[in-house]
Structure formats: structure tokens, C-alpha cells
Specification:
mainly alpha, Na+/H+ antiporter like fold, 13 helices, globular
């Protein structure tokens, strides 16, 4: 897993740069936009087929950790995302929507690599993965409706249809296949590689189809940098205070830090492309997010390891 996730960190910048360069070719730009959603669906299918659902039983070994992680990820962070969006993004509703969509969805993949990099409790981080996914899929429509429904004349029925298309269907298909085929370590590694390649291709097609728009709106990165950075700083300090208050084991503290900081841009992107087809800035904000998130997570991983 670690090797594949390191490969993901390498491939994403390559996909972004090459997508930018080829976005000036009108033939590639017009064609690649149609491939983004299929690649994201393939990525999600591969992610779901590797989802360790049996680890639900392990969720309750460390109840204190689970309760704190859920409170931060699904109560505090949605409120924080709305406040930061209100302060910094109220002049651009589309960016505000994308910002909220990203922050209310905890990461379900690369946070494991950063936890391992920082010498955290990887098993504990892995055990909370199914809960993170389950809660965000249930609560994401509610958050979007509450926070953006008034802002954008949001179509709740379209969101439900989108959730069924890009989340429920790949999940059901993955579970059907797992019922008939035993997914051993070798096959699991293959699906994990497929997920990484699919995400890379989805990012590439997104940038190659919308690169010209992003170049025209280069201010997006600058505008998003401040609220994103504040989110990471505030939650980093919050988790540090929690550790001190309850005398948390340091490896568990590292796991809590990474699971409350890393966000799930692939799932948010898949939903945004389908639910907001006429608002490309929403999807672009979710594509840009890893450019800010990945360097910060790398810095956080080394920081918490040094603080130890």
C-alpha cells in the first residue's frame, strides 16, 4: 500500500502539468472532458472493492478515538468550513460550494500513507476508514443542502441521483464481485493500482478539459490558499489540544491528526462533476485542493514526528 500511495503522490503532479499543457489543444480538450467521470467511477469501484468492511468490528476497540474523530470530522469541521467560506469565499459561491464539499469529506485513502510516514497508529487509522466513508456518504447530501441549497438554488433530487450514480452503484457492483471472487492480497494490490491510475487519468482529463478556464481564472488558487491553510492550522492546533487534555497515546494522536486533516477530493470531485455540470469552478476548486493539501500533509507528517 505504501508504495502505491507514494506512486500516487508522484503521478498527481504529472497529471496536472501534462493536462495543463495539452489543454491548449482543442481536440484533446473537447474529448477529455467526457472521460473524467468514467475514470472517477472506475477509481471509486476499485476503492470500494478494497474497502475492509470487516474492520467495522474493530471500530469500537478505541471508543475515545472514534468519538473524537467523528465529532471533529462531522460536527466541528462542517461548521468551520461554512465559517471560513463565509469569510473568504462569499464573493464566489461556486468556490464556496466546492470548499464545503471537500472539507466535509474525510480522506479514505492517502491519509494512511501520511500516518505511516509520521509513525502513527496505521491499524487504528485503517479501522476508522469504513466509518469515515459511511458517515460522509450519508451526511454529504445533508451538508450540501443545508450549506449551499440557499446559496445556489440547489437541486436536492439531482444530488440524490448523483449519489446513486457515482457512489451507490460502484459500491454495490464491488460488493457483488467480492461475493463471487475472493480478493486476496495480490488482487487487492492490482485494484489499488487501478484506483491510483484511474484517479490520475481523471485529474489529467479534468485539467486538459478545463485547463484554459483555470488559466483564465488563476486567481482561484490564491483565493483558496488562505481558507484551506486556516483549516489545516486550526484543526492541527485543536487536535494537539485534545491530545494534551486527555493524555492521548502519541501514535493515536498522529492518527487522529491525519484523519481530521486529510480530505477526500476524489469522491467530492465525482459528485461535483455530475451534480454541478454547469458550474465548472466547483469541480476546479476540488482539483486544485490537492495542490495545497498534499504539501501541507507532508509538512504535518514530519512535524508531528519531530514533536514526538
Amino acid at each position: 500500500m505504501e508504495l502505491n500511495e507514494k506512486l500516487q503522490i508522484i503521478l498527481l503532479p504529472i497529471a496536472i502539468i501534462s493536462g495543463f499543457l495539452l489543454s491548449q489543444n482543442s481536440l484533446i480538450s473537447n474529448f477529455s472532458g467526457n472521460l473524467t467521470l468514467p475514470f472517477l467511477l472506475l477509481m471509486l469501484f476499485s476503492l470500494f472493492i478494497n474497502m475492509p468492511l470487516k474492520n467495522f468490528r474493530k471500530e469500537f476497540i478505541n471508543l475515545k478515538f472514534i468519538k473524537i474523530a467523528i465529532l471533529i470530522n462531522f460536527v466541528w469541521t462542517p461548521i468551520l468550513s461554512y465559517i471560513l467560506g463565509y469569510i473568504f469565499l462569499n464573493q464566489s459561491i461556486d468556490l464556496w460550494i466546492g470548499f464545503i464539499m471537500l472539507l466535509v469529506t474525510p480522506c479514505t485513502d492517502w491519509y494512511l500513507m501520511f500516518t505511516d510516514l509520521a509513525k502513527g497508529n496505521v491499524k487504528l487509522s485503517l479501522s476508522i476508514l469504513p466509518l469515515n466513508l459511511l458517515f460522509q456518504l450519508i451526511l454529504l447530501p445533508i451538508y450540501i443542502f443545508l450549506f449551499t441549497g440557499v446559496l445556489s438554488g440547489f437541486d436536492f433530487n439531482l444530488l440524490i441521483e448523483t449519489i446513486i450514480l457515482v457512489i451507490v452503484m460502484p459500491f454495490i457492483l464491488s460488493q457483488i464481485i467480492k461475493y463471487f471472487i475472493s480478493v486476496d492480497d495480490k488482487l487487492s494490490n492490482i485494484f489499488e493500482l487501478i484506483a491510483i491510475v484511474s484517479l490520475t487519468l481523471a485529474i489529467f482529463t479534468m485539467f486538459s478539459s478545463e485547463g484554459s478556464l483555470l488559466i483564465t481564472n488563476s486567481w482561484i488558487f490564491i483565493i483558496l490558499l488562505t481558507p484551506f491553510s486556516l483549516f489545516f492550522i486550526i484543526n492541527f492546533i485543536l487536535v494537539r489540544l485534545v491530545k494534551i487534555a486527555i493524555d492521548m497515546d502519541y501514535s493515536d494522536y498522529i492518527s487522529l491528526t491525519l484523519t481530521t486533516l486529510a480530505r477526500n477530493s476524489p469522491i467530492s470531485l465525482a459528485i461535483a462533476i455530475t451534480a454541478f455540470p454547469n458550474q465548472p469552478l466547483i469541480a476546479l476548486s476540488l482539483v486544485i485542493a490537492p495542490l495545497i493539501e498534499l504539501p501541507i500533509l507532508t509538512l504535518v507528517s514530519y512535524t508531528v514526528k519531530k514533536l514526538r
